[in-house]
């Protein structure tokens, strides 16, 4: 008879895991959770001091980690990041593609008619291309070894129509559809790819700027309304555990899916 009280989270048994956008909030929580489950985590981001702090936190808890900086918007820098990991460790087993979508230089709620062409480009780069660059680089490494797990983190605006998020949602929706297609393309190489979507995160401070004037005064109110509509609070650790599920062996039969961790705010099909 199984002793349920003795069951532990599935181990990642020294898997080499890259977590982008791992210097704070959701990315940091993912890095900590994967390390707790036994992965050797490469913490990546643009802020080296913050990244090394996350590494120190992991090591203090008995885990293994290192920092490797890269700008997710720079395709060649991301390619070099992954090639460096393979050179040092011989392989890359897990990619958690987070970051860029809520960094300090990202745009927030903006009405479509208020956007410029540069705004279009910014949204697409931060919510789609920042994922595409690292997914392509990681997939190249994983194809060579015949296996791998990729988890892309995005926003529920890619699944649910939200005023002020036409391009945040549009770019994320494109990223999620890309992942569904890649599940078919890369599955033959033993690579699984899934996405985790979220809405308001209680312990992740929004870091956006540049909202539309019509929305700027209501931005905090919009976030408060999201909180009121949620049935349950969601924290960074909740996103991290969902990512760890997709990264671990218990999800081996799952690919091409998007899991919304949104506290019941919406129930997209």
For the structure shown, list the relevant keywords:
269 residues, alpha/beta, Rossmann fold, globular, SDR, SDR_fam, NAD(P)-bd_dom_sf, SDR family oxidoreductase
Report on the architecture of this protein.
This protein has 269 residues and is α/β, with parallel strands linked by helices. It has a single domain (11-261), classed as Rossmann fold (3-Layer(aba) Sandwich), CATH 3.40.50.720. The protein is 44% helix and 13% strand. It is built from eight helices and seven strands, in the order βαβαβαβαβαβαααβ. It has a seven-stranded parallel sheet, sandwiched between helices. β4, α4 and β5 form a beta-alpha-beta unit. The chain starts with 15 loop residues before the first strand and ends in an 8-residue tail after the last strand. Mean pLDDT is 90; it is low at 1-7.
């Amino acid at each position: 008879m199984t002793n349920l009280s003795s069951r532990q989270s599935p181990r990642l048994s020294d898997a080499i895991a890259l977590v982008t956008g791992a210097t704070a909030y959701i990315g940091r929580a993912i890095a900590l959770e994967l390390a707790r489950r036994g992965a050797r985590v490469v913490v990546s981001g643009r802020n080296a001091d913050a990244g090394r702090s996350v590494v120190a936190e992991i090591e203090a808890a008995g885990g293994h980690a290192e920092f490797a900086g890269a700008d997710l918007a720079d395709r060649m820098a991301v390619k070099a990041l992954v090639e460096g990991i393979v050179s040092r460790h011989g392989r890359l087993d897990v990619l958690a593609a987070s970051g860029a979508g809520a960094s300090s230089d990202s745009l927030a709620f903006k009405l479509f008619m208020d956007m410029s062409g540069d705004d279009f480009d910014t949204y697409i780069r931060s919510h789609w291309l920042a994922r595409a660059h690292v997914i392509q680089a990681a997939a190249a490494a994983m194809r060579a070894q015949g296996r791998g797990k990729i988890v892309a983190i995005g926003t529920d605006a890619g699944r649910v129509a939200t005023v002020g998020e036409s391009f945040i949602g549009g770019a994320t929706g494109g990223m999620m559809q890309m992942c569904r297609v890649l599940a078919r393309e890369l599955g033959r190489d033993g690579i699984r790819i899934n996405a985790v979507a979220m809405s308001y995160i209680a312990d992740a401070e929004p870091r956006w700027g540049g909202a539309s004037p019509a929305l700027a005064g209501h931005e905090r109110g919009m976030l408060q309304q999201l909180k009121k509509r949620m049935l349950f609070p969601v924290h960074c650790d909740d996103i991290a555990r969902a990512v760890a599920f997709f990264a671990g062996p218990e999800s081996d039969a799952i690919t091409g899916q998007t899991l919304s961790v949104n506290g019941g705010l919406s129930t997209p099909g």
